[in-house]
Predict the structure.
Amino acid sequence: MTESSLARSSAVMAGGTVVSRALGFVRATMLAAVIGTTGLAADAFDVANTLPNLFFLLLAGGVLNAVLVPQITKAAAHDDGGHEFVNRLLTISIALIAGGTVLVTAAAPLLVRAFADFTDARAVGLATAFAFICLPQMFFYGLYTVLGQVLNARAQFGAYMWAPALANVVMIGGLLVLLTGFPTQVGPAGWTPAMVWILGGTTTLGIVAQALVLVVPLRRGGFRFTPVWGFRGTGLGSASRVALWTFAALAVSQLGFVVTSRVLTRATGLLDRSHQIGAGKATYSNAFLLFMLPHSLITLSLVTALFTRMSTAASAGRTAEVVADLGRGLRLPAVLLVPGMVAAVLFGEPLVRLLFFGNSAAATRPVAHVMIAMMVGILPFGWLYLIQRVFYAYEDARTPFLLQLVVTGIATAVNLYAFTVDPRQAGVVVGIGQTLSNLVAALVGFALLRRRLGALALHPTVRLYARLAVASLVAGLVAWPLDRLLAAGLPDTHLTALLEVVVGGGVFLVLALVLSHLLRVEEVGQLFDPVLRRLRRRSS
């Protein structure tokens, strides 16, 4: 893949992600208006709707991500272009996911009790009802992933990133029905069967649409799926070894998440009994949605395109190319992530207030605090994601498993501490644990990469980060007092939040970019050069 095609692929994926995430925020805002950002009903739906994601990842998601792209890339050397090999992989993968979906759906009541520390029987019943409707999503998440990875390996990147937009449209339709025809933000006792089916059913229907729409670009690209059973003669032995280690890493991760989920649902129950508002499971999920936006728009889109290229280079033994792509994956996202991290700390609270405009300031403030705790670690989160993809490119899933042990061990230790703090602060402590665990694991990952690849040529990356940090901190020192002066004496309304974000955030962004340019951050200069050339032409 050339530099220009890498840029085009990243742009196409980023475009799909932007639209999908924008619709996702519309959906999240509407969902918050329907069910709230805090409370037992919000946590009941959040636990149920999280289960299919967790078990899909456990049984197949990460395995498929780690296995399919490297294996399909190598399969192109087979006599038939890898068609039979890919069909074997898809047949086994889809059968595995289908069987797993049946089992976890049948176990819905047990799973709810495992992941939620509810003492309110009505909350348990509501979560279980939602779980029975939502858990079949697991199969369609799997179908979406396997078909999408075939598209990615064939360099057809667009549809995979655009399909979630369709899912969000379907879900938004269901939320519109609830907002216009049913009571909103009611407790568990206020949810009728019709309301449960509309919310749970349209959520699942959206995932169905997201998967099936990928059949169209696959057929247009000439791929035809034909079930082929059996492993002999296909070279799937190495794939199964990668899958085993990846499964082990995901199992460790999900065991850790059981603790996270129980800490947060317990906090919600305690807050509900004392009639207080704080960060629970639904609050954490909304904060994580905001945290994932820059990662999805910037890091994920780039690394997805780089992964195919790194897999090809790794297979051919071209280590220098892998190291070069590692550097690109570290530097390019930082141009936006470093100032974005500082902006989130300074302006996160008014931004969240705006996004969840259907909720009170007291209800949205915990979301902002958890999001800020996570956003401080947005860079280590991206580093770790990239490092894992480098090892997967070499079909090494054992090292990512060891890194996952580090992440889960540290995060779980912090989460256990969260059991002892004020329940209003439990979500913030969990967010800090996520940041700390990703930072430590990423540093360990760099050391292991250096042992495997040799010198990583990180000096340009360190210089870039230092310059961006200086520019962002200086911009923050100017914009923050201005923002506080602007908000002083004004009521806590959505208009005040809008002024803070537009004026304070706007001043910060302009200053950060200008200072980065003056500090000779080349990537920022590339953004300014077209504008400056046009201005010079007009002035002349």
Summary: The chain has two domains: 3-457, 459-540.
